[in-house]
Write a structure and sequence with these properties.
412 residues; alpha+beta; Phosphatase 2c, domain 1; five-stranded antiparallel sheet; 47% helix; 16% strand; elongated; disordered C terminus
């Protein structure tokens, strides 16, 4: 073994030992939670200061007994000091009081007086420390329950993500991209695109009333029902009717779901949709530079026993862009209380219509996030973009789009 040691190491060891010796006496006196938080000298200063003040008063006042004043340093000690140190402090207080007691008192009476004071002090210290122990146990229980709840919420979020689409469908002539950002650990939003055949895809976006775990549970039920219906029936009005009955049965009309269900046929170049109280999707036509709202035709599902909806349709051409979203985008507010609104969303869509679907999703989200920077989103945010490219032309990237004043376009 090599005996040569660097001088800096030798010099550092005495310093470490001195620091350890300085810390050990304080740590041995204080309770563990007190020793780990805040300055270690402050509790001792409070205890000694209170004890010194009481001893001074007890010595100066000889006409009456001030035994009860020793409860002050004992109470402070019971809060900050370890159990055995707190009980040792009782003996010190009794001895100090006995030293200042009148000498003409009978010895038997003095002993009785000191014993009664010691018992009273012990009861005070015991109940204070018992209260502190119960409070610490409660804090640990609450922390453990909080950790368990966070783990459960994270597990629920993982299960919820299983209902979201994975990958992109291979439908010739359609470019699809989507995203969802929960306001909390779990979300009340839902979107999906389900291929029906080689040229047809069903698109759904939904928003459950409320936030948090209750909304997420109802969203999961809605997602499961939509995916089951997509594999059995092509009649969207009948699908909406069954969804309404199912959601109403589990929510009792208290909670509801806004839903937009659309079926896009790339071969026929058409979109058929039914909007149940959801935010109107945007249909931007690049050829004429016009923007159409796919408005609602019936109330949200889950409110009324029967859902009387109308099926709407529109023709599609190359260059058309369909944008589905939830109110987390349009109702995002800035520091002045202004909403992002459909107008700003339409401006971003119009300006970024030549972007790829994925870049347009990013651009919409970034524009809304910049608008409410410093405040943040207060609701779940979901965006789904479908671009029509029936002729096989390629979309530009975000860096190739010319910028216009007043519209934020971010490079990705």
């Amino acid at each position: 073994m090599n005996d040569a040691v660097h001088p800096a190491v030798l010099e550092s060891k005495p310093a470490e030992l001195r620091g350890l010796r300085e810390r050990i006496p304080l740590l041995s006196l204080l309770r563990k939670d007190v020793a780990s938080n805040g300055p270690r000298w402050l509790p001792l200063v409070l205890v000694l200061g209170a004890l010194g003040a009481v001893v001074y008063a007890d010595r100066r006042v000889v006409s009456i007994s001030l035994t009860y004043l020793y409860i002050l340093p004992l109470g402070i000690g019971a809060i900050f000091l370890r159990r055995e140190i707190s009980y040792s402090l009782i003996g010190i207080c009794v001895l100090l009081h006995d030293y200042d007691s009148p000498r003409h008192m009978h010895s038997g009476l003095r002993i009785f007086h000191n014993l009664s004071a010691m018992l009273s002090f012990a009861f005070v210290v015991y109940f204070i420390q018992r209260y502190i122990e119960q409070r610490e146990a409660l804090a640990k229980t609450v922390q453990q329950q909080r950790d368990d709840l966070l783990q459960d919420v994270e597990l629920a979020a993982q299960v919820q993500r299983l209902f979201l689409p994975v990958g992109k469908p291979a439908i010739a002539g359609l470019e699809i991209a989507g995203m969802m950002k929960p306001a909390r650990g779990v979300s009340g939003d839902y979107y999906d695109y389900i291929p029906i055949d080689a040229h047809t895809i069903q698109v759904v976006i939904a928003d459950v009333s409320g936030k948090g775990v209750p909304a997420a549970l109802l969203m999961s039920a809605t997602a499961a029902a939509v995916q089951l219906e997509a594999n059995h029936d092509r009649n969207m009005l009948e699908v909406v009717g069954r969804l309404n009955a199912g959601i109403r049965s589990v929510s009792d009309g208290v909670r509801y779901v806004t839903l937009l269900l659309a079926e896009i046929d790339a071969r026929e170049r058409t979109v058929n949709y039914v909007n149940c109280g959801h935010n109107p999707a945007l249909l931007f036509r690049a050829k004429t530079d016009t923007l159409t709202h796919m408005d609602s035709s019936c109330p949200p599902i889950g409110i009324f026993p029967q859902e009387m909806c109308e099926l709407a349709s529109a023709d599609l051409i190359t260059g058309d862009v369909l944008v589905f979203y939830t109110d987390g985008i349009t109702e995002a507010r800035n520091q002045h209380g202004e909403e992002f609104g459909v107008g700003r969303l339409s401006a971003v869509v119009r300006h970024g219509s030549s972007l790829s679907a994925e870049d347009l999703v990013t651009d919409i989200f970034s524009s809304a996030a910049d608008f409410c920077s410093g405040v943040g989103f207060h609701d779940d945010v979901t965006i789904l973009v479908i671009k029509c490219d029936f002729d096989g032309s390629k979309a530009l990237t975000s860096s190739q789009v010319p910028r216009e004043e007043g519209v934020v376009v971010r490079e990705t």
